Each structure stands twice: as C-alpha cells, then as structure tokens.
Amino acid sequence: MSNDYANYTVFMPPTPDNQPGATQAGASGSGGSSKLGLPPYSSGSKITNRRGGDDGAAGGGSKMERRLSTAHVASPSKSLLVRSQTGDFDHNRWLFDTKGTYGIGNAYWPQDDNPYANEDGTGMGGGGNGGVKMEDLIDKPWKPLSRKVAISPSILSPYRLLVLVRFVSLFLFLIWRATNPNPDAMWLWGISIVCEYWFAFSWILDQMPKLNPINRAADLAALREKFESKTPSNPTGRSDLPGLDVFISTADPYKEPPLVTANTLLSILATDYPVEKLFVYISDDGGALLTFEAMAEACAYAKVWVPFCRKHSIEPRNPDAYFNQQGDPTKGKKRPDFVKDRRWIKREYDEFKVRINDLPEAIRRRAHAMNARERKIAREKAAASSEAAPAPVKATWMADGTHWPGTWLDSAPDHGKGDHASIVQVMIKNPHFDVVYGDAGDHPYLDFTNVDVRIPMFVYLSREKRPGYDHNKKAGAMNAMVRASAVLSNGPFMLNFDCDHYVYNCQAIREAMCYMLDRGGDRICYIQFPQRFEGIDPSDRYANHNTVFFDGNMRALDGLQGPMYVGTGCLFRRYAIYGFNPPRVTEYHGVVGQTKVPIDAHTRSAGDEELRPLTDHPDHEAPQRFGKSKTFVESIAVAEYQGRPLQDHPSVRNGRPPGALLMPRPPLDAATVAEAVSLISCWYEDSTEWGLRVGWIYGSVTEDVVTGYRMHNRGWRSVYCITKRDAFRGTAPINLTDRLHQVLRWATGSVEIFFSKNNALCASRRLMFLQRMSYLNVGIYPFTSLFLIMYCLLPALSLFSGQFIVATLDPTFLCYLLLITTTLILLCLLEVKWSGIGLEEWWRNEQFWVIGGTSAHLAAVLQGLLKVTAGIEISFTLTAKAAAEDDDDPYAELYLIKWTSLFIPPLAIIGINIIAMVVGVSRCVYAEIPQYSKLLGGGFFSFWVLAHYYPFAKGLMGRRGRTPTLVYVWAGLISITVSLLWITISPPDDRISQGGIEV
User: Fold this and answer.
1) Which of 55, 240, 272, 285 is catalytic?
2) Which strands, in side-by-side order, build the sheet including 244-250?
3) Which terminus of the chain has a smaller tally of CB atoms within 10 A, N or C?
4) Is 888 noted as a catalytic residue in this protein?
C-alpha cells in the first residue's frame, strides 16, 4: 500500500486563507516550477496528504515532493467580502466574485468549458500547452476487457459437499439394494436394480460438469477506450474494432413469415457497432422471390428506422417488439421531438407491414399479368409468322420486368425447389468510412441533424441447388455464407441467427468482443449467448424457456473449457471455423486429466487426422481443403490477423498493433461479386474438406453441437456471455406436439452423435475430463428413455402383483430414500442460488424431462437404432389438427391438439398407473389381511409418476373447464371395471410373506 498514492496530486482551492501572494511565491522559489498550468494556488503552500506527513518538506527521500506552480488571478478586496452586520467573512460572495470552488474532489481539473482559463488557454485547467491533462497527472493502468466473477464460496462449497454426500449415499444405497433382493418378486427387483444403476450413472454424467460454475463481466468502457478513443496510434478516434459478419438463415417464407425475418434484419442493422465494420447476410435456402422483396422493403424502411434508433437510443431495435412492448414509451426520453418522431415512425411501420402482407398477392398478380402479356406476344408472333410457337412458361417476375432466377411459383426446370441458380444481391452497399451526419432538410418529417444516417452493408444470398446433390440442409447453407462473406467482407468474426431471433440488447455484440479481444482471447473459438424466448405461456407448461440448461448447465461449462454451441446467437472466430488449431494448446494427461501438458499447436499429431494442422503443408491452398478459389484462400490469413487482440501489454500474446484496422475498405466490384456467386455453387465443395473438418460439420441433424465439439476437441475454448439485459430473443413452439417434435429432432441428433466418430469416448487429450463427460452425456441421454419408461411402469406392476421392489418398507431403505431425496432438494436450492433459476422452472424441467423421455427420446432411440442397423429412416409426422379456438388469445396455440404417435407411450403410462392404483385399493379393500405397506409404496410412486405427467394431461384436455364430463365418467367406469376383473381373476392372497417366510 506504500505506493498506492505515489502519483496522487491534491489541489488546494483558493480560499481567503490560501490566497496567492508574492511573499509566499518567493518563499517557494527554491522548490522549482512545474511544467503544468495549475489552478491559482499558492506555490508556497504545504500539502499534507491523507496518509499523514508533510509532502512539502524537502527532507526525507522516502516521500515524493509535490510542488505547485503559481498562477495569478485578481482577488477582490477582503474588506468588500466582510458582511456588514456580523463582520464575518462572506464565503458565498467570494465564490461568486472569484468563481472559486471548494473541494475539487479529485486530482484532475475538468477542461471542458473551463471558466478559469486565461486568455492564452493556460491557467486553471485551461487548454494550451500548459493545460492539465489526465495523461499528465496519472499513468493509465492497463485494463482488461473482461474478468471472471467467482461464485460465492458460501454457496459453492456446500454445493460441492452435497454432491459428494449424495454420491456416497447413492453408492451405499446401490450396494444395499444389490445385497438385499426381494425373493418374492425377483423379476421386479431385477428391473428396478438395472434402472437405478443407470439413473445413478446418468446423474453423475450430468452433475460432475457442474462443479465449477462461474460468472463473467465485460468492461464496455475499456473497450471504447482501447478501440475507439484518440490515441497516438489512432489520432482521429476512428473505430479500431474488427469487422463482423452477421448471418441470418431462412428456408421457407410460408413457414417462416417474411415479416419476422424483416424485423430480425432491422434489429441487426440498428445494433450499436461501427457501421463500416458490420456486414449482414441472409441465406434464403428456398430461393423465394417473396423473401427477396420482403428484404428489399426492409432495406427501404431501415433508412428511417436505423437513424431513429440512434437518435433516441431505442431498445429493443426490433420494430415489432418495440411498438408492442408494455409500459410508457417516453420513459427516459428527453428530446422534445421524440413523440413526433415516434408517431411518424409507427405509422411508417404499419404501412411497411401492410406492404409485406400484400407481397404474396402482389407477386402473383404481377406474374399473372406478365405471363398474360407474354402469351399475347407469342400469339402475335405466331400469327405473323404463320408458325406454331411454343407456349411461354409460367414464370415468376421481378419488379424490374425480368425473370426471377430462383424458385418460381409454378415449378419449372432450373426454377424449382431444389433446382435453381446461385443468387448474390448486394442490397445495401458498403457505407462510407467516415461518419455521415444528416441535415435538417434531408427528410420532410424527421430531423436527423448530428445523427449518423449510414446503414451497414446487407447482402441477399441463395446458394445454387441441383438435383442429385446433397445440400446438407442448414449446415450447407451456413458454409455457403461463410465462403461468400470471406470474399465480400471477410469479417474475422461471425454471428449467426435464426430468422426468428433478433437483437434485444444493442450492446451485446460489444460485450462479446470484450472476451474475443481480451488477453488470451485468441484461444476462444466462439461466444455463446443464452437463448431467451418470447410468447411463452406464463406458467411455461412445457419448459420452453429451458432455463435449467441455459442458466445452469451452460454456465457451469463456462468454468471448464466452455459452453456447447447450441445453434443460434453464437459469435464465432472465422479462423477457428476454418478448422485451424488454436495458437496455444494444452493436453490433459492422467486418468482424470489432472496433468496439463502445453504442446505446440502446429506440430503434427500422429494417428489423429482430426488434430492434423491445416498449415502443416507449405502450400495450404490445396484444393482438397478449401476449394479452388484463390481469393478465398488469400482471405484466410487476413481474417486471422484482424481477429487478434491488441498488443498493448507484455502479457498479450499473438496480438496485433493498435491502429491496424483504421484503413477504409475498398468498394466492391463486379469481379468480387462474381467470385462470391461461384463460391456458393453446388459443385464447389466437391473433393474438399468442407463439412468434414472445415466449416459447419455435416452428417447430423444437430450440426451445431458437432461443430462446437470439433473445435473443443482441437483445443479451442469458448465463453458463455450472459448480459444484464437479454442479448437476443426469439420464439419457441408452445404447442405440445410441436414441442415434442423439437425435442425429437435434438434427441435424434444425439443418437447420431453417439454412433459416430464424434462420440466423446473418441475425443482427444485436448478435451478436459469434465468437458468430455458433458459431451458424453449429450450422446447418452436419449438412451435413458429405455430405463425411464420401465421405471414409470414399476409402480403399476407393483400394484398389479401386490409386491414391491423391496421385501418390506425396511427402515434402512426409508433412511436411504430420505437421505437421497433430501440431498437432491438441497442441491436444487443451491443451484437456484448460483444460477438464478426459479423453483417452478426447475420443477417444470423435471416434469418435461419425464414427458419427453418417455415419448420423443424413446422414438429417437428407435429411429437411431433402425438407421444404424438396417438403414431405415422413420419420420414421425402430424396427422390430425384442431383449429385454434380463439384467435385473439396470444396463447391460443397452446391449446391446439395435433395427434402424433409420440402421444402413445405417455398415454399408456398414465392409463396403466391410474388403473393400477384402483386395483391396489380394491385389493386391500377385499383382502382379509390388507398389506398397506405394499399399497403405500406402490401407490406413492405411482402418484409421483402421474404428477410428472400433469402438464401432458392438461395439454390433451384443452382449455381449462372445457374437458367433457363424459371423459371423467368413462375413465372412472373403465378403472372400476378393470379393477374388479383383476380381483376376480387374481383374488387377494391372505398369506403374508416376508423374506421367503409365509404366514
């Protein structure tokens, strides 16, 4: 602490007791003069610091001398400052006349609009050569852009202790269960033992990676200071941030409404990132003219929406979300023209929506009119030449009177779905490098004076599709955007969105850059944001928010090697996507990876093709890796260099000098666009490593998880960025059937991962042990459904047979059960503390885990096994639909009943358990010696199973209060009838058996 205030300077205000004087100045002449123009304090004043001691003393070399220069100001006569009645000194009069101040509060005198400066700019904080500057008073310390925020030990230590206690309890319980069979029902005991062992193994895989959760914090002020402030290397204060390519993917405008996609685009164009460094791309995998013209309308509206957001600091910057949000829109707004601007922008947005809604009919009307004209011209030519002319095709026409090169409304050769040419259209050109401010007369209704009116570059893409090619769905579309953007903008970082996810926090991208550009950021391959959803019913019946995963599991993985890549809202390092190794790699040796061994990332790994460096060959332009485009290959080294952190500290490794990204970008030319067209052709990936080691990985419906796993397996790290305000928001299916099919898709991808080389059991030593367990759990969790469905039927089997999984409700069994349950509840409470999830959210997650585990996960395992063993593809499609009962209800979709075969297993489990409970009660009622212990055991667990299926049953019943009474009547009659039949067929046994002894 002795050096904390080594450069600390204290200013003394010029009070009447401390006025400048010639005698004081003369007394301090031996002290020397300062080069700084300081306030008019006496140079002879002795300054005593807050730590004690006389800083003005010349003796004692242990303390730094602090001397202040003299600046003379005219001071009023002291007699005029004396109050006439009391004779006291009038401080207020003195402050007014001298413009003095008491207590500056810090060592830095403000320089803006300084009233104390002399005419030459010197004096009290004035500018000029002698002005006080912050750089002159203190040495700026190096500031990191981010930091780790550890979880409180008062939460984390008990949490880890409880995990250990529960692990030991499970171990002892399973040993006791294995050594204490039920001789009266060995088959029941055997099934329960197998299921319990698997559940214990599954719990370990899920729990162990959650032992080291962390939080992170980004410093946006430090980011602006380093990259957007005036420095010797950046005298103009231009942004030195790297470029960013943003990808939006869509496939079918009739399933993904163009208005939703347009709002996503507008939110990205208006985000707070340097305009000249932001480049937006949309991949229309359907090649639809409807999407193209909707994006053109969005670009036109963006000319007023984007400056409006900047002028008034609008949040969120999705027009639909902004105008539909609850609350006072004027809160925090200070500009007097805000209400007028908002009213006009709202009217323009309403007109914009009407134009988007009319586009399908407008395109059809245009195509009908243009085709009719073509037919008329063809008839006239045929009549003039007296020859039969071929009938013109029914084309789809663009607004400029030319054929649309993509998919036509009436399919035709080269213009059908899955058969069309490449399309690249730069809808918004690269903006000017300097800020372009609006003028008062630029717009008749809006005043954008001193507002940057530039809009980021926007490009529409539709990759070529031809019959006979495997286009690899979304992964292929993402790789096409990666290649096209490499030659058009080549941003070293890439951010991908689904078409229904938009930017909710305009500062989120800057927070992600804090991690990428911080010390050690060159080892980070991607920044994953949590997914947040809108339009979910308040009770979140089917756990659509999935907060247990996003706020619990993913946050815990951030303390290891990083979170998984989960599809959307992820910012990538382009160099990592290309399949390169990180600049520094650590291998983990030992049984549990306890030994860290740094290795050279550029050395060739024998026997592991996945870890082979792409740069181990002197000619890395080999076409079998990236293709034959020389322009694309040349862009790789540029992207790698521009994505490095600043070399502004000795501890920063693999950095770049400040000011390296200040030069303006050259404008796009026709040759560059033509190169982009060739890069998205369907033949470009032939005989290359795209989809194998480069780009998004092919071969799985969950290409996101596989792609993230490959990067982690090469030694890269990732970061989980949880912002205070949600970074992005999207939509999720709230209907039961849609939700189950979504889970089915994820589970099917996990089964494919398990049976592929992407199984974590085959991972390299560059993957941490606990990270490996997490990825192993991704491939294994669907198989839990096989044991879960058996365990959900065990209570019913117990009630039907009159037996239980144990011989009796032994006190040892009950104690173990109580201990395991108590530790689970306490673990849940502590997870709620460090993750921020709610107890209701945790319970909803548990309920849907059972619902999905006995339906979608089971179907995924069946589908995966048939695909692996027999090559048979099975798809679970919807059959019947029920219309929404109330279109005005925002949650009307929640009550839709769409029958699917995934409903069969849960319905069977519910029905069997209800009937079993009735049978168990009837058995005890009719028995001469009722065995209530077995009824209590089986009945409690059966009720516990039914409690997990409550959301499923509620979804099948429709709206509250609208379930027909006849359903309850028939359910009761069937249960009573079946129970009576069972009692007749298998009457109660009056013998009491315990441990093989019958009484």
Assistant:
1) 285
2) 423-428, 457-462, 278-284, 244-250, 493-498, 570-573, 524-528, 717-720
3) N
4) no
